[in-house]
Amino acid sequence: MNPNKNKKLILSLIKDDLINTKLVNGLDALGLNAQDYLLHLSDTVFNLMKIKDDENGEKLFEHYLNLKDNVRFIESAKSHESFDDLALAIYIDLVNKKLNQ
């Protein structure tokens, strides 16, 4: 796959993961148990980024979850541009951390 296409796909998946997480967390805050509806897109993201399922990959996954938690600060009613910005920041961070392993 073309590296640029791969990056676009990964960014799209991260953004979708952020939007889904925001929705599920919002439903949980309203008292609905929506955790079963998480899409687990991170598995696909990590697969496309060729991050191994080992100890380092597990640490990176925990880091990804912490970064993804920043979605709670996004005002999704105004614009989805903030999702794009956060998705890019997460992607860059993952790439840098992967290179430094």
Percent in strands: under 5%
User: Can you tell me the overall shape?
Assistant: globular
Q: What's the order of the H and E elements? A: HHHH
Helix content: 55-70%
Ranges with pLDDT <50 over ≥5 residues?
Answer: none
The averaged pLDDT comes out at 93
Q: What is the tally of beta strands?
A: 0
- Count of individual helical segments: 4
- Structural classification: mainly alpha
Gyration radius, in Å: 14 Å
User: What is the distance, rounded to the nearest whole angstrom, between the alpha carbons of the first and last residues?
Assistant: 24 Å
Summarize the structure in words:
With 101 residues, the protein is mainly alpha-helical. 67% of the residues lie in helices and 0% in strands. It has helices at residues 3-29, 41-48, 55-68, 81-99. Helix 1 (3-29) crosses helix 4 (81-99) and helix 3 (55-68) packs antiparallel against helix 4. 13% of the residues are buried.
Topology, element by element:
Elements lengths: L2 H27 L11 H8 L6 H14 L12 H19 L2
Helix pairs in contact: 1-2, 1-4, 3-4
Question: Keywords, please?
Answer:
mainly alpha, 101 residues, 4 helices
Question: How would you sum up this structure in a few lines?
Answer:
The chain is mainly alpha-helical and 101 residues long. The chain has 4 helices and no strands.
